[in-house]
Amino acid sequence: MGQAALSVRTTANYEGAVVTVSETRASAGSSSPLHVVRRDPYNAETPEYALSEQTTPTALVYVRSNFDLPVIDVSHTVAVGGAVRTPYSLDVAALRALPQRIVGSTMECAGNDRLSILPLPSGEPWSSGALSTITWSGPSLRDVLAYAGVSDQACEILVTAADSGPRDDAVGRVTFARAIPIAEALHPDTILALTMNGAPLTSVHGAPTRLVIPGWYGMANVKWVQRIDALLTPYDGYFQRQRYVYEDASGVSAVRRMRVKSIITSPTAGSTNPSSLVVRGWAWSGAAAIERVEVVVDGGNQWQLTQLGTPTTPYTWTPWECAVMIKQVGRHSIRSRATDTTGAVQPDAIVWNRLGYGNNAVRPVVFEIGIRE
To answer: Measured between alpha carbons, how far is residue 197 from residues 17, 143, 285 in Å?
Structure first.
């Protein structure tokens, strides 16, 4: 495909193409079906009931914003440059003209469950709803990079977004940008998504195009992509070295792939249930497939294996279920823990880190047994 074909601009409209800050703030009002964490910039969680769905409806997918939504018009293009043979730019029509790949992935915000970490770290006060499973489609990033001709010496691909703003611990405006290893960038399932759940991306989810890296925490899935650059040295920008890092007594390390984790979707917290019930939930890991999920009722360490279902794709959560009998009427708790095929096990407690990332600790669900069968 020639460069001219890739560089043609379109004037056709697409959902979310023109976004103003005032419209965005209005959409974050009290009528939102999400649980609003912060209105400015807009951050909101997927409601608990939606987490029982195999695929999260678009209107219920959690939203993470570091700044106000950028204003993006129909002439938007993505520039490709850096350590490449042929720098060029392409618009939405050109992205659509490339072979499209469908990728389903479970995506979790790195700060999900921050409120469960003690002492409470700084950052958005996320409970447990910064988590969704989505079906994306768009061209593979490697197809976009192939035309540019990435240098053999490139070590990372930097993806820069259109959103920016001030930060308390930085000078001037900061633009959101993240770099990923070259091997991850060239994986066929790393895509520049144009759709989610079969419809065009919405503005809060990165329209007209966002990066999707299955298995990585949400911060790597850069929204509102405006530049892609091949780098010869590792990137050390604000959102690479000052944020989205694990910082504790052992040192500092990058937040990358999602840690192994499970959740219980039934019974729900505070619900009343019969003594014989089926416990259900999901498990996922950004590193490998789920090998097993175990549950335990109340305290102790008498873990019981569950039956695993089949995930819809290698990158989506694995369903599991287990029948349990609880004879005593009253309050009870149930916990689940997952193990992936690398041997990584969901821990009983998180190792505290200053910014509160990657909390994958076992979390109890408290419910009632009200009927003895």
So the answer is: 18, 22, 21
Task: Answer whether residue 64 shows pLDDT above 50.
Answer: yes
- Identify the burial level of 58 via C-beta atoms within 10 angstroms of its C-beta, where 0-12 means exposed, 13-18 middle and 19 or more buried: middle
| Alpha carbons 47 and 206: distance in angstroms, whole number | 21
Q: What distance in Å separates the CA atoms of residue 196 and residue 312, rounded to the nearest whole number?
A: 15
C-beta separation of 346 from 261 below 8 A: yes
Average pLDDT score over the chain: 91
One of 3.30.420.10, 2.120.10.90, 2.60.40.650, 3.30.1490.190 is the CATH number of 261-371, namely 2.60.40.650
* Helices then strands, each counted (H, E), the chain: 6, 24
**Which string of DSSP letters, residue by residue, matches 73-142?**
-TT-EEEEEESBSS-EEEEHHHHHHSPEEEEEEEEE-TTTTGGGSSSPPSS----S--EEEEEEEEEBHH
The amino acid at residue 11 is T
Place of tokens 């076992």: 362
Q: Which residues is 305 bridged to in the sheet?
A: 294
Average pLDDT for 140-146: 98
Higher pLDDT, residue 104 or 73 = 104
Of the listed ranges 15-19, 256-260, 277-281, 369-373, the least confidently predicted one is 15-19
Q: How far apart are CA 133 and CA 99, in angstroms?
A: 23
Radius of gyration in angstroms for the set of CA atoms belonging to the chain, rounded to a whole number: 22
Choose which CATH entry (3.40.630.30, 3.40.50.150, 3.40.190.10, 3.90.420.10) describes domain 3-254: 3.90.420.10
The pTM is what? 0.91
